[in-house]
Amino acid sequence: MKTTTLDLIRHGEPEGGQMFRGSKDDPLSELGWQQMRGAITGNDRWDAIVTSPMARCRHFAGELAGQLRIPIHVEDELREIGFGEWEGLTSEQVQARYGEQLSQFWQDPVSGQPPGAEAVVDFYQRVVSGYERWQLQLAGKRVLIVCHGGVIRMVLAHVLGIPLDKSFSGFAVPYACRSRIQVDHSEFGTFRSLISHQP
């Protein structure tokens, strides 16, 4: 039996506060740095860090990897979904400009995607591809993945079998939220379990 532990953590608050910022590369705010540092405990032990290339993830991941003296890997496929015309807008601005499209997106992001946005099905396939690559490459290790709310939703949808049309409304993923996934590899197959989800 070989066990891989994967801890996913969402980045903290970026500069500019809450908005749709899939591909908008804002760094962490001062509060965001506090949230991330506060989410790590003295009992945490990892063998490696995998991070999204976005500044709001990569800068913290680099700091932590340096402190812990462990390797860091940047995975482009773990970047956030692109929100198309909604990029850089707050929920209030989207509501004002696009009306019912906002609630349609949260209820069913597959058929209610923002204009010009990356399709959720494509996003899911991209994220799972990047996630599984590192799950295999770092099999048997304890891994921290620093990423985004959308990325965590896709990974949990994959592990728990959540339909993609429910993947954005089924659970909360606030800033610095942590989720632990355990992957057991044995002669009987590979078993994936969500061990904890701490908003």
From TrEMBL:
Domain of life: Bacteria
Pfam families named in the record: His_Phos_1
InterPro entries xrefs: His_Pase_superF_clade-1 (IPR013078), His_PPase_superfam (IPR029033), PGM_Phosphatase (IPR050275)
Protein name listed in UniProt: Alpha-ribazole phosphatase family protein
Protein source organism: Marinobacter daepoensis
Taxon lineage: Bacteria, Pseudomonadati, Pseudomonadota, Gammaproteobacteria, Pseudomonadales
